[in-house]
Write a structure and sequence with these properties.
This protein has 860 residues and is of the alpha/beta class. The strands form 4 sheets. It has a 26-stranded mixed sheet that branches. Helix 5 runs antiparallel to helix 11, helix 11 crosses helix 13 and helix 13 packs across helix 16. The longest helix is centred in the N-terminal third of the chain and has 41 residues. It is elongated. The protein starts with 9 loop residues before the first helix and ends with a strand.
Length: 860
């Protein structure tokens, strides 16, 4: 203590303690308050989620509230509900499951295996664990004694299963074959494995579903197992394949056949997966002695022959397999989530010697999982062997419709509940945390329903060739087959001419397969193609009658030759008047008059040359296609002439030429009317190809477009465009100039997304608009004269037209500015020193369109 300090007292200590508490609260209270709010909010979320019903089919406002809260904090509601449901079930149901397990009284199986033999099994298991797989053999068997009820049975046992899930834990999977006439119940061969190997109760549910529908399965239940006096707990007891399978299913004795499982597994282990195993794997017969099994060798041969002829394509599935039971088997496989049991190396078939058909035997399903699609839609070749048969497919779809109906799944669970409780209680003895999850079954039902009831079942188009009776092009637009029963148009119901039509389902990633169907009208009815039509149809196997709309336009309008011209290979070497120079990469059109009755296609990158006194007559829809520059230079008295004497020629098209085309003293036209010839619809077209036109004259004959420039820089001087269709010249997304050029007796100039300079342009007797600056264009003009026109100058939305010295004589409208449209400003026209004479309407300003005359707004 320092000199002068007062001795510490209890009062001072109390004051210091109180001061510390105040400081702690001053700095911590805000954090405590925020923490309390966070904990309160989290508690509310958990409380809301826990209050939500587990069944997703139940409509409840609490679910919607909880889903909104979870989404707001970045959690997936569906996944969270599943997790919380599991937590609730484990925590709340755990005590009850413990009691159920303790009170269960399972059947007991006691196994006695000599110590040396048990060590032999342990060695085989150790080797399998090291390799990661096990391919069993007869040498693996060891003697075993089985005590069951009051029986003592003798036989042999071996390790069961090919993969580590069977024997990585202390519960090894074992397979038994009893001696002579010894039977465990009706089974001469059986196996035991941990319940998890077959997804606990899911395999039992699968077997019960099969038995309920009269489909063959195997005996499957849960028992308590003791090995050499040591309790091993709960195992699943599963029947293996011998003559007892037929007895268990109350069927006459018959052989059991399959695809060789060993061959498939050997290929997998060797990392050499077999191509088309369903067609190449050896077929196996299960069981060793046909006579002892109660069936003959002839019946075994018949079973193998049927299986072989089916897989090789010799017989359809419905002639090999029992139609009803096979359809029901696959429908139940989809509903229960059987992802394993009907794979090629797992499925087994029973041959019924009376019906002489094969039947699938359900086993090793490992079911209870979610499915992505029904098996009838898969593209896997093995399943296509079944479902490419329309007869089996239709029956299978009928069964799917039935088992996915409301109440079916609920009835299955209700009827099997007593057996379910007895067996699941045995599982609870070892694993009280196990919880059977019904969600996959309900989800699989929805997958089935969506497949059977697609958004749209067919594609339908009016067939344009129909005159007196309705013709419709029909094709399935989804993978399931469809039956078409009628065509409806207003009050008229027409039937297919040859009876109901069946459409094959569309293969995945393949085009729709269309067929033209004629419909017969009722007596006295008249067909009106303008009335909307609907096709009456149903997906095969379902009872739902659907109405699918028919597209009013043909599926394939026009001719089958659409686009043919641009697909043709280069052929200029085939013409005697076209000289090809591969070194210079040119094709020269020789002087003279030449008749071209088929398309002339110039090789890509080659220039097409022509000089004075050259004349080409395009007949019989002929056209010229050039994928390089066009270099045509005539003279005033000996110009180059390209035309069509029969009015069918498609003109000249220049595609993506790197170098500029030059045309001087060239006359083109007339050609085919717009849209009639084979080509682009214009006498001369440039696509992404620079062009220079000087002293070019074009004649459209009153019905053909003349020049089309698309994304092509250009210069046009001293040229003439007469008798062209509207528009005579179309400039699209191109920049360039037009100087001292005349338009007459037809269409005018149209700009679209382009910048064009127009200097000394003459427009005479133009139908429609002489100069139109379309959307997104800029026109800079000088000395533009329009005489006898509909509209002299117009600027649409997003465009500006500026013209000095505009002269208009005899026009319905002199100048028009268009209104604004979505994404574009209103049109603008700027005039300086304009002369407007004898115009019915001088100015039209639509909406916010503006016209300025010498710096002032034009009168409205």
């Amino acid at each position: 203590m320092r000199l002068g300090d007062r001795p510490s007292t209890w009062g001072d200590r109390a004051r210091r303690l109180l001061h510390g508490v105040r400081r702690w609260f001053r700095f911590r209270c805000v954090r405590l308050f925020l923490l309390t709010l966070v904990l309160l909010a989290a508690g509310m979320v958990v409380a809301v989620v826990l209050s939500v019903p587990d069944d997703p089919a139940v409509t409840n406002p609490a679910r919607d509230v909880a889903a909104g809260v979870l989404s707001a904090v970045g959690l997936d509601p569906k996944d969270t509900f599943l997790i919380v449901s599991g937590i609730k079930t484990v925590n709340i149901g755990l005590p009850g499951r413990v009691i159920q397990g303790a009170l269960s009284a399972p059947e007991r199986i006691e196994l006695d295996i000599a110590q040396v033999d048990f060590q032999r099994l342990a060695y085989v298991r150790e080797m399998a664990l090291q390799q990661g797989y096990h391919l069993p053999s007869e040498e693996d068997h060891v003697p075993v004694t089985v005590r069951y009820r009051d029986q003592t049975l003798h036989g042999k046992a071996r390790l069961k299963g090919n993969w580590p899930d069977h024997w990585y834990s202390g519960k090894w999977s074992l397979r038994f074959k009893l001696d002579g006439d010894d039977r465990l119940d009706h089974m001469g061969e059986f196996g035991i494995h941990a319940p998890r190997v077959r997804n606990y109760m899911a395999e039992w549910i699968f077997q019960q579903a099969l038995a309920r529908e009269g489909v063959m399965g195997v005996s499957y239940r849960f028992v308590d197992v003791t090995i050499n006096g040591r309790s091993m707990g709960t195992y699943a007891l599963e029947q293996e394949f011998d003559d007892g399978v037929a007895w268990f299913n109350e069927e006459p004795p018959g052989p059991l056949v399959r695809f060789s499982k060993a061959a498939v597994h050997q290929a997998i282990v060797a990392d050499r997966r077999m191509p088309d195993p369903e067609r190449t794997v050896v077929l196996d017969v299960l069981g060793e002695n046909a006579t002892a099994g109660g069936y003959s060798e002839n019946e075994t041969a018949a079973a193998l022959q049927l299986l072989e002829r089916w897989r090789s394509g010799g017989l359809p599935a419905h002639d090999v397999f029992d139609l009803d039971r096979t359809a029901r088997y696959f429908a139940l496989s989809d509903l229960t989530g059987n992802l394993h049991g009907d794979l090629i190396h797992n499925i087994r078939f029973y041959y019924n010697p009376i019906s002489e058909r094969l039947e699938p035997v359900g086993v090793d399903s490992n079911s209870g999982w979610f499915i992505d699609e029904i098996k009838g839609l898969t593209t896997r070749p093995y399943y296509r062997l079944f479902f490419d048969d329309p007869v089996l497919t239709e029956r299978y779809l009928e069964e799917l419709e039935r088992v996915s109906a409301d109440g079916y799944l609920e009835a299955l669970f209700t009827e099997t509940e007593p057996g379910f409780r007895a067996n699941v209680s045995v599982i609870y003895r070892d694993e009280p945390f196990y919880n059977f999850d019904p969600h996959p079954y309900h989800a699989n039902r929805e997958v089935i329903r969506k497949a059977l009831h697609p958004h749209r079942a067919i594609s339908a188009y009016v067939n344009g060739t129909a005159v007196s009776q309705p013709l419709v092009d029909l094709g399935a637009s989804q993978p399931l087959p469809v039956e078409v029963t009628a065509l409806r148009a207003g009050d008229i119901r027409a039937l297919p001419e040859s009876g109901p039509v069946r459409l094959t389902g569309k293969a995945l990633h393949e085009p729709v397969q269309f067929q033209t169907v004629a419909f017969t009208l009722p007596p006295g009815a008249a067909w009106d193609a303008s009335v909307p039509m609907e096709v009456e149809c149903r997906v095969l196997g379902t009872m739902e009658s659907r109405l699918e709309s028919v597209a009013p336009a043909p599926r394939l309008p026009g001719t089958e030759d659409a686009g043919r011209l641009m697909r043709l290979p280069a052929n200029s070497a085939n013409f005697s008047f076209a000289v090809t120079d591969d070194d210079r990469r040119t094709v020269l059109l020789l002087p003279g008059s030449h008749r071209l009755a088929e398309p002339l296609i110039v090789p890509e990158g080659y220039a097409l040359l022509s000089g004075p006194d050259t004349s080409i007559d395009l007949v019989q829809n002929a056209s010229i296609v050039v994928r390089g520059p066009v270099l045509w230079e005539g003279t005033e008295d000996r110009p180059i002439r390209i035309g069509s004497s029969d009015g069918t020629g498609g003109g000249v098209t220049v595609l993506r030429a790197r170098n500029a085309s030059t045309l001087v003293h060239v006359h083109l036209g007339p050609f085919a009317s717009q849209g009639a010839g084979e080509g682009t619809g214009a006498a001369l077209t440039f696509l992404e190809s620079p062009a220079v036109l000087d002293l070019v004259s074009m004649d459209g004959g009153g019905s053909a477009s003349l020049l089309r420039l698309v994304d092509s820089p250009f210069t046009i001087t001293r040229s003439a465009f007469t008798k062209g269709a509207v528009p005579a010249v179309s400039v699209e997304f191109s920049n360039g100039t037009i100087n001292r050029t005349r338009f007459a007796d037809g269409g005018g100039l149209l700009l679209s997304g382009s910048e064009v300079g127009l200097d000394a342009g003459w427009f005479e007797r133009i139908a429609g608009t002489a100069v139109l600056a379309g959307q997104g264009s800029t026109l800079a003009g000088r000395e533009v004269a329009c005489t006898g026109v509909g509209t002299a100058l117009a600027s649409e939305s997003g465009s500006t037209a500026s013209v000095d010295l505009l002269s208009v004589h005899d026009a319905e409208v002199a100048v028009r500015a268009g209104e604004a449209t979505t994404g574009f400003a209103p049109g603008q026209v700027v005039l300086r020193a304009a002369t407007l004479a004898n115009a019915t309407t001088r100015f039209v300003q639509d909406g916010e369109g503006t016209i300025t005359l010498d710096g002032r707004s034009a009168p409205g």
